[in-house]
């Protein structure tokens, strides 16, 4: 006789707290990372409901269908749901018309959960990039004028292509920074910090900027697909620079980059949207 697994209750939320939920499941020890174009840009870590295990999902604040915004692409079988205020990608839900065999009814981005021991979570990779059809079409690059000799052009965009940019860099990108603060961790952002004058943007009218705490960093994400693209700095020592999320860069091999770990989580004030709420 199989034993009922012991359940652990996790609290989850978008960064601004407009959408909060509780997830009661067996202890999360594994997660799935998909290589498809959307999951790659958002750096999702997925937990899927298992038919043979308990799975309790309860919304505490907000509404799945009105607080969160849907983004669909390809054959539009799964709705990627993100907060339109802070950009946090929370979950995906199978659409009623889906014809995909054995597709999960929903999945939770565990980056939105508290109290997960991420250092011990085993991440399994799913090669969605080679399976999902039609293939992702990279948008046309942003024109940035003449490229000086010895300069490399890097082109990037959100998933839907509404927000895009070209970076002209005097050196090859070989490293990026991963910050463990509450917003960067949720966005799975990998940052570089070029001078703003080296970046040509297109479609900033489709971007939403979200800031919190001391308001020094304005996190720009696409209001259509929710992908985190850039940071704009105000009143800091980096006001002449922009941060670019290299996950949004096309034809850049992330595995070849040296990743610097930044401990933004330790900076005050401490992040806490739950407070005494249950």
UniProtKB/TrEMBL annotation:
Residues 10-137, 154-272 form the CENP-V/GFA domain. SUPFAM superfamilies: Mss4-like (SSF51316). Pfam families: GFA. Keywords: Metal-binding, Zinc. InterPro entries: CENP-V-like, CENP-V/GFA, Mss4-like_sf. The keyword Ribosomal protein does not apply. Transmembrane segments: none annotated. GO terms for molecular function: carbon-sulfur lyase activity; metal ion binding. The keyword Endoplasmic reticulum does not apply. Belongs to the Gfa family. This is GFA domain-containing protein.
């Amino acid at each position: 006789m199989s034993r009922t697994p012991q359940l652990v209750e996790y609290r989850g939320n978008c960064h601004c707290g407009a959408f909060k939920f509780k997830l009661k499941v067996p202890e999360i020890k594994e997660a799935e990372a998909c290589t498809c174009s959307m999951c790659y840009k958002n750096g999702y870590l997925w937990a899927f409901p298992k038919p043979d295990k308990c799975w309790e999902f309860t919304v505490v604040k907000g509404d799945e269908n009105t607080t969160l915004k849907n983004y669909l692409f390809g054959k539009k079988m799964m709705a990627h749901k993100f907060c339109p205020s802070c950009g946090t990608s929370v979950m995906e839900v199978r659409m009623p018309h889906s014809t995909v065999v054995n597709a999960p009814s929903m999945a939770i981005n565990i980056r939105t959960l508290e109290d997960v021991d991420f250092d011990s979570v085993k991440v399994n990779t799913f090669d969605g990039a080679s399976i999902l059809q039609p293939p992702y079409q990279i948008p046309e690059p942003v024109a940035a004028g003449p490229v000086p000799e010895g300069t490399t052009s890097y082109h990037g965009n959100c998933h839907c292509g509404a927000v895009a940019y070209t970076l002209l860099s005097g050196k090859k990108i070989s490293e990026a920074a991963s910050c463990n603060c509450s917003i960067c961790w949720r966005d799975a952002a990998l940052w570089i910090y070029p001078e703003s004058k080296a970046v040509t943007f297109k479609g900033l009218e489709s971007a939403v900027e979200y800031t919190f705490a001391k308001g020094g960093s304005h996190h720009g994400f696409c209001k259509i697909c929710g992908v985190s693209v850039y940071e704009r700095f105000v009143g800091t020592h980096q006001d002449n620079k922009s941060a670019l999320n290299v996950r949004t860069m096309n034809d850049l091999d992330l595995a070849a980059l040296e990743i610097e770990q930044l401990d933004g989580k330790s900076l005050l004030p401490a992040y806490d949207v739950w407070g005494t709420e249950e």
